[in-house]
């Protein structure tokens, strides 16, 4: 009953998009990857995802009740966070650890800082990093699907050498890794769907992937393997493009994408951990306020005044 | 009336003006030492001893020490007591010295001690200063113990591991296992991010507790 | 404020405070000094015996000028040697005690001091399971990932332990 009287300023023509619709579209875009993941690792994947999503939603609901806020679960944002978090977990993870991750994502990163729109970094990414550090052993235990190719049987692609015939495996995801990062094909399909429905702008994924490709070639590594392996695709299309934690202007998005690419490659090639995407996203999220400040859009009419003033 | 005031000086440091959670003093050793509850207890007791002694001495000398040199004098006295405590610990409780490491000599610059010397001991009688020292020390030790317990239970699955260093009658390698061995502990809790998080939660808790008590106290004061 | 209060009194009081404090410290040191020394000696002896239990006691070997070697103790019954060596790890100096048996083999090693990252470097420096990899190796200059594997992500710590052991090996042969 709260919003019967709506008082807003101009403009009064608005689009039909609501937070709920946008979040639902993201969920739809993630479903193919979920299906592929279930096909690769087994049906227990669905249970793990369900547990993660359910705990995210429950934590958000509980928080809103505790803080006596209006129901904030309707906007599906907890569902998206839950699915993205689940996609960052290995399929052998005990369920209670996923619940801990959900707590960190929803309560600590999102609600303690003010709820949707106020989180300082992508909740799923921070939760993944926290779990990777806190439950290091379990998080590193990805199982390897039955139909794995020998070249990839020993470790995840990021820590192994690959030949050309393995590209198909990378694309289809028949190798070890966390739930959502293996099947590049479905992730790209989901990403294209989001771009086509104008949910995300293509600038960040394009710049991110482009920078990684360029730097891989410069460093002498196989760019296709770098692009398709690890959590890069998932991160580029679904996590880096989160509205709250990425810049608003196109120039800002450009800088954001380049920064992400540079940090990811630095960690992958120069660092000791095999995967750099989650840390890159977190670091760039922290820099977003500064990027925003420097790429602020000029108010309309300012440039003309300056030119006129200079002319005189 | 004066007994009540003496008692309030003592209990002040436990919650209302808890040095770590309310006055936000001495946070560095708090975060560093509370990876295990036993370390927290040891550090708390050592710091309490130093705080008590320095408060007494500084209060006794408060009319003699001129204002211009008061800080050097306080630091010298505090450093003296800390060095004595360090020597005693190294000689008789070496396991605690190992556990606290560099944070034992760092008690010299523990803001609680210099802070209370400046805020309280230099302006109050010896008895009150002693009570304040004890109260602040109890508050400090309690906070360290609680924080250390939370971080140890969640981050390592044990409680009071290493207490045999403080209490030699305990068997070597003493530890109470809280989480069953099959449950992985959340090791983030024993490192820096977990420490800050627990610290924040405890500060919020202390703020909430004192906010609820204040209306009741206001009524008492007006009588 | 007259000159007494402005200059002389502060200086006098501060000097007196310093003298009194220094005096108490000297007294405390006098009492606890011997206790501390004895305790450290006992702890080191205990560590050596833990590594080479067959040795009845040890005799310290002086005069070895090798850097990074802190201490060489020869077993009184000729059962072996325990060398304490250092190396620079990721977070600071690492101190390793290496026990050699008379047949030129490394019996055991033990890291006694380390400051490596908890959870990463500590898997090398604080984990007895990793130290066991050195047991039974021949006493010669060892090579990382050939004789002993490094732990993934803790290369610097693994290398530091190896360097310390190699320094100990060098000392072992030098004193023969």
Write the topology of this structure:
The complex is a heterotrimer of chains A (312), B (223) and C (176).
Chain A: H1 19-41, H2 44-66, H3 77-87, H4 95-111, H5 123-134, H6 136-139, H7 167-172, H8 184-196, H9 203-219, H10 223-228, H11 232-239, H12 250-270, H13 277-294, H14 302-311
Chain B: H1 2-12, H2 27-33, H3 37-60, H4 70-92, H5 94-100, H6 111-119, H7 126-156, E1 158-159, E2 176-177, H8 192-222
Chain C: H1 3-51, E1 58-60, E2 69-75, E3 80-88, E4 93-101, E5 105-113, H2 122-125, H3 128-131, H4 155-174
What does this protein look like?
The complex is a heterotrimer of chains A (312), B (223) and C (176). Chain A has 312 residues and is mainly alpha-helical. Chain A is 61% helix and 0% strand. Chain A has 14 helices and no strands. Chain A has helices spanning 19-41, 44-66, 77-87, 95-111, 123-134, 136-139, 167-172, 184-196, 203-219, 223-228, 232-239, 250-270, 277-294, 302-311. Mean pLDDT of chain A is 82; it is low at 146-155. Chain B has one domain (2-222). Chain B contains eight helices and two strands; from the N terminus they run αααααααββα. With 223 residues, chain B is an all-alpha fold. Chain B has a two-stranded antiparallel ribbon with strand order 1-2. In chain B, 64% of the residues lie in helices and 2% in strands. Chain B has helices at 2-12, 27-33, 37-60, 70-92, 94-100, 111-119, 126-156, 192-222; strands spanning 158-159, 176-177. The termini of chain C are far apart. Helix content of chain C is 44%, strand content 21%. Chain C has two domains: 1-51; 58-174. The model of chain C has no long low-confidence stretch (mean pLDDT 83). A five-stranded antiparallel sheet of chain C has the order 1-2-3-4-5. Chain C is α+β, with helices and mostly antiparallel strands and 176 residues long. In chain C, β1 and β2 (69-75) form a beta hairpin. Chain C contains four helices and five strands; from the N terminus they run αβββββααα. The relative contact order of chain C is 0.13. The interface between B and C is medium-sized, with 23 and 22 residues.
What's this entry about, in short?
The complex is a heterotrimer of chains A (312), B (223) and C (176). Chain A is an all-alpha fold and 312 residues long. Helices cover 61% and strands 0% of the residues of chain A.
